[in-house]
Amino acid sequence: MTEREDRQDIAEVLLRYATGIDRRDWPLFRTAFTDDCELDYGEIGTWNGVDAVTEFMEVASAPSVSTTTSWCARRRVGASRGGGSPRCG
Fold first, then answer.
1. Is 77 helix (H, G, I), strand (E, B) or coil?
2. DSSP3 helix / strand / coil % (the chain, rounded to 5)
3. Cα dist. 39→2, 57, 78 in Å?
4. pLDDT of 32 strictly over 60
């Protein structure tokens, strides 16, 4: 793959992540992660596995807790020797 293709693939994952949250479309949200993923949100917490990540986001994004509005409106995809480093915001 070329760097450009890598960047496009990363951007598509970020879009599935953000769209899944905004629409509360949890099957779509899950496609942004591998089954054995590890999510580290620092002081908020860490989660292991796509089931735990999805459960956390469902609770955190419940209508009674928050509104959802473009969690990832801006994307910056950087390249490094270790691979891409996607960022939202």
1. strand
2. 45, 20, 35
3. 27, 11, 19
4. yes
Q: What is the 3-state secondary structure (H, E, C) of 16-83?
A: HHHHHHHHCCHHHHHCCCCCCCEEECHHHCEEECHHHHHHHHHHHCCCCCCCCCCCCCCEEEEEECCE
Identify which has the larger pLDDT, 7 or 52: 52
Q: Evaluate if residue 9 carries a pLDDT over 70.
A: yes
Stated pTM of the model: 0.73
The CA-to-CA distance between both ends of the chain, in Å, stands at: 26
> Could you give the domains of the chain?
3-88 (3.10.450)
Other beta carbons within 10 angstroms of residue 78's beta carbon come to 11
Tokens matching residue 76: 């910056």
Residue 48 φ/ψ, nearest 5 degrees: -120, 125
